[in-house]
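Attaching the record inline, Q. Sequence:
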Amino acid sequence: MPLWLSNIFSSMRTIRIFGAKDYMVIVEGGVPSDSGNELNATTHPKLREHGYFGVLKIATDDETGIHVHPIYDGSWSFAVAPCGEDMPLPDWPILRSWGTQNDHSETLEIQVPKSARLTVEPPVESQPKH
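Structure, as predicted:
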C-alpha cells in the first residue's frame, strides 16, 4: 500500500528513511520538516558543519520522540535512540529492511504520530571536553 494511502485514516503516519548516494538521506511520508525530505550532507549547514551527518530528530511538541543517527561506511545504516537521555523510547513500530530502496542502504519504516516533526540537530557529543 502506498504511504500516502496508509496515512489518510490514522492518527499515525508511516515515514521511510534510507540513504541515497554517499551524501544524502531521504525521508518519505510527509512528515513536516525544517529541512525538506532530501537531506544533503554537502549543502545542509548543520550536516556539513557537524561532521558527515547530524542527528535526525523526530518528535512531537511534548518532546516524545526518537533520534535517528545516519551511519555511512560505504553502505547506509541507522541507529535509533530516545530523544533524551532520561526518556524512554516511544512505542512507535519500527521496521528495518535491507536493500528495499537502494542496494547499499538499510531502510527504516517508522510509525509516528501525525503531530511529529523532523528537525536536523548537531551530533550529540559523548566525550567530555578537557
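The radius of gyration is 14 Å. Residues 45-49 form the longest helix (5 residues).

More tomorrow.
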